[in-house]
Amino acid sequence: METAGIRLIAIDCDGTLFSRHGTLSEYSAGVLREMREKNIKAVICSGRPFYSISRAIDRDLFDYAVCVNGHSVVKNDGTVLFQARFFSKAETKRITALVESHNVMLAASYDDTFHYFCSKRRHFIIRSVQLLKNVARFILRRNLWHDDLISDYEKLCDHDMEKFCFSGTRKELEKIRDVLKDAYYCTFVGPFWLEIMPPGINKGTGLEKAMADAGAQPAECAAIGDGENDLPMFSAVGIPVAMANASDSVKAEACMITEYNYDRDGAARWISDHVLNNSPD
User: Fold this and answer.
1) Going by DSSP bridges, is the β-strand pair 164-167/149-150 parallel, antiparallel, or unpaired?
2) Dihedral sign computed on CA atoms, order 133, 138, 141, 142
3) How many C-beta atoms lie closer than 10 Å to residue 65's C-beta?
4) N- to C-terminal Cα distance for the chain?
5) How far is the C-alpha of 192 from the C-alpha of 72, rounded, in Å?
6) Residue 219, Cβ neighbours under 10 Å: how many?
7) Is the overall model pTM greater than 0.85, yes or no?
8) CA 65 → CA 24, 33, 54, 138, distances in Å?
9) Which of 149, 167, 155 is nearest to 103 (CA)?
10) CA dist 129 → 124, 134, 136 (Å)
11) What value, to the nearest 5°, has the Cα angle with vertex 20 and ends 17 and 25?
């Protein structure tokens, strides 16, 4: 596969560019910096909102951010190129009500903060389990979890919601997907993590807007990812690359697979070996 002519690389964050702890290593930061020095556009494609991406990655290390799985596309200076519609109050009410009828937890972002919700009936049990886990983390001298657990998920109707994330067993999440799949874009970003997006919005549609702004053709672009929500951006580029830790379904759609997992800088190493070494100075 010819990679010498690549002008733009789209990179997923969690499970791809970031380490196991959700941070950017010095090595990966150096690779992003070298990409920009060689005028190769870096597009961060993530389920995270822009505030979370820019907190984790210095803005001088990327050119565009495809945020919340394509819900918005933002330049590194904060200029918004695209903003999709938000869920209506009626839609939010319908989706959040599933927390009570299914054994799942709900995660949602608003006011630049991520919040976790659970059923009113299960709040005491889940909160107790979280507290016990914190006791173990304290004994092991690890950082404690301070995430609030909220049961009044109806409050989400008062905010502009971009997406919803459900966490639970695969069987339970599949039930929710079956309820919502005809009206929304539902995708598993992990075995126990289901994301719900407005229809027609995904990483691929967002990436295409960044590519158009950069004047890059699909044949000149690569994309690196590990989850099902990365498949739409694979379809948008000429060189789709799956992480070594990606699921089999993702690897099946890729033309190349990284040698290393995300916890060994697999994405950055692939860029260094296959693009930067081939890129003219």
Assistant:
1) unpaired
2) positive
3) 29
4) 21
5) 25
6) 12
7) no
8) 15, 15, 9, 36
9) 167
10) 9, 9, 11
11) 50
Structure tokens at 128: 């107790």
Kindly state the average pLDDT of the residues 262-271.
96
List pLDDT tens digits, range 129-180: 555 555 665 676 766 555 566 667 788 889 999 999 999 999 999 999 999 9
Q: Which tokens in the block code for residue 9?
A: 């690389």
Residues 6+ apart with CB under 8 A from 117: 96, 99, 105, 106, 107, 108, 149, 150, 151, 153, 156
CA–CA dist 61, 64 (Å, integer) = 10
DSSP codes of every residue in the chain: ---TT--EEEEEIIIIIS-TTS---HHHHHHHHHHHHTT-EEEEE-SS-HHHHHHHS-GGG-SEEEEGGGTEEEETTS-EEEEPPPBPHHHHHHHHTHHHHSS-EEEEEETTEEEEE--TTTHHHHHHHHHHHHHHHHHTTPPPP---EES-GGGGGGS-B--EEEES-HHHHHHHHHHHTTTSEEEEEETTEEEEE-TT-SHHHHHHHHHHHHT--GGGEEEEE-SGGGHHHHHHSSEEEE-TTS-HHHHTT-SEE-SS-GGGTHHHHHHIIIIITTS--
- How many other CB atoms sit within 10 Å of the CB of residue 138? 11
* Both structure tokens of 87: 């869920």
Q: Taking Cα atoms as reference points, which of 168, 160, 205, 170 lies closest to residue 185?
A: 205
Exposure string for 227-242, b = 16+ CB within 10 A, e = fewer? bbbbbbbbebbbbbbb
Question: For residues 98 and 191, what is the distance between their CA atoms, to the nearest angstrom?
Answer: 19
Residue 33: per-residue pLDDT = 97
Distance CA 147, CA 69 (A): 23
**Cα 119 to chain center, whole Å?**
25
